[in-house]
Design brief:
- The protein is α/β, with parallel strands linked by helices and 283 residues long.
- It contains 12 helices and 9 strands.
- The protein has helices at 12-16, 45-57, 70-77, 105-113, 116-119, 147-156, 163-168, 170-181, 215-229, 231-236, 240-260, 267-282; strands at residues 8-9, 33-37, 61-64, 90-93, 124-126, 141-143, 184-187, 193-196, 199-202.
- The chain has a 9-stranded mixed sheet, sandwiched between helices.
- Strand 2, helix 2 and strand 3 (61-64) form a beta-alpha-beta unit.
- Helix 2 runs parallel beside helix 3, helix 2 packs across helix 9 (215-229) and helix 9 packs parallel to helix 12 (267-282).
- The longest helix has 21 residues, at 240-260.
- The radius of gyration is 17 Å and the shape is globular.
């Protein structure tokens, strides 16, 4: 890179500015509707974690897209979820879905749902199995890889960088990936970085207890809800998506600290803390 990018240090006050509070004139559809294409036969829990985390963060409605038994799992945990297609103001796609489209029949079906992302061109979060769509969508797009996923994604675009190289300078590679792919990048790690072109955000160091299965699915759900409620602001100001991603990562880490209290946590225990964290930030 020609110059070193100076990262903006992210704070609780910055996060609070990204939380849209409803007014007396709002109704469920004016508060944002999140479309969710997550989970698979191999990783069914991801569907439950993303939807539960999104609803805990706060939005008007959530539409879970699936033609399989995944919808029953989601409804068992979150009966308020809608399970039929319809208009949305943001998308989450890919959490808990293998990137190999033909791995099995159920995975192939989940990838077919990704076609909806192009039919409803609204701000979109791509995670895990949908990362290959980075740079192929017209709408504002956020990707949320860890270093291994980013290494594989960049290789698809002819940029060779091992996980070790990216991990040695994550802020540089977050910026480079954003500029190369034309998307906002949230690069997960012990210190998470968000980059949108040369705009770089550094999150407070995360608790090591977050290194647990499903925590990334919870993160996607939190950010997805914030995107859905901020969709107008994102369409008016491209940098807003980077701020939203940082706010979601901040809430995620605060929820982990509250759930842990110095001890181990599971992804599902994070969800129980999200509402209180959001409330504290607003105060």
């Amino acid at each position: 890179m020609a110059k070193e990018n100076v990262a903006r240090k992210w704070s609780a006050k910055d996060s609070a500015r990204c939380i849209i509070t409803p007014s007396a004139l709002d109704h469920k559809y004016s508060r944002g509707t999140l479309g969710v294409i997550t989970g698979s036969a191999q990783y069914p829990g991801a569907a439950v974690l993303t939807t539960s985390a999104a609803l805990a963060t706060g939005l008007g409605a959530l539409r879970f897209h699936s033609s399989s038994g995944l919808a029953h799992l989601v409804l068992h945990q979150s009966p308020e979820a809608l399970v039929q297609p319809g208009p949305v103001t943001a998308w989450i796609a890919g959490s808990g879905i293998d990137s190999r489209k033909n791995k099995d029949f159920s995975t192939w079906l989940r990838h077919r749902w990704f076609k909806l992302l192009q039919r409803q061109s609204v701000p979109t979060l791509l995670d895990a199995g949908s990362l290959y769509l980075a740079g192929k969508l017209d709408q504002p797009t956020l990707i949320t890889p860890h270093v291994g996923e980013l290494s594989k994604l960049l290789a698809l675009h002819g940029i060779i960088a091992s996980s070790e190289i990216i991990e040695s300078n994550p802020q540089e590679w977050a910026v480079r990936a954003s500029q190369s792919l034309g998307v906002t990048v949230l690069l997960k790690g012990s210190t998470t970085y968000v980059a949108q072109d040369d705009y770089l955000i550094e999150l407070p160091k995360g608790t090591p207890w977050l290194a647990t299965a499903g925590s990334g699915d919870v993160l996607a759900g939190i950010i997805g809800a914030l995107i859905a409620t901020n969709y107008i602001e994102i369409l008016n100001d491209p940098k807003r998506l980077a701020d939203i991603a940082a706010a979601g990562a901040f809430i995620h880490n605060r929820a982990a600290l509250a759930a842990s209290d110095g001890g181990p946590i599971s992804a599902s225990t994070l969800i129980d803390e999200i509402q209180q964290i959001v409330t504290k930030l607003l105060k």
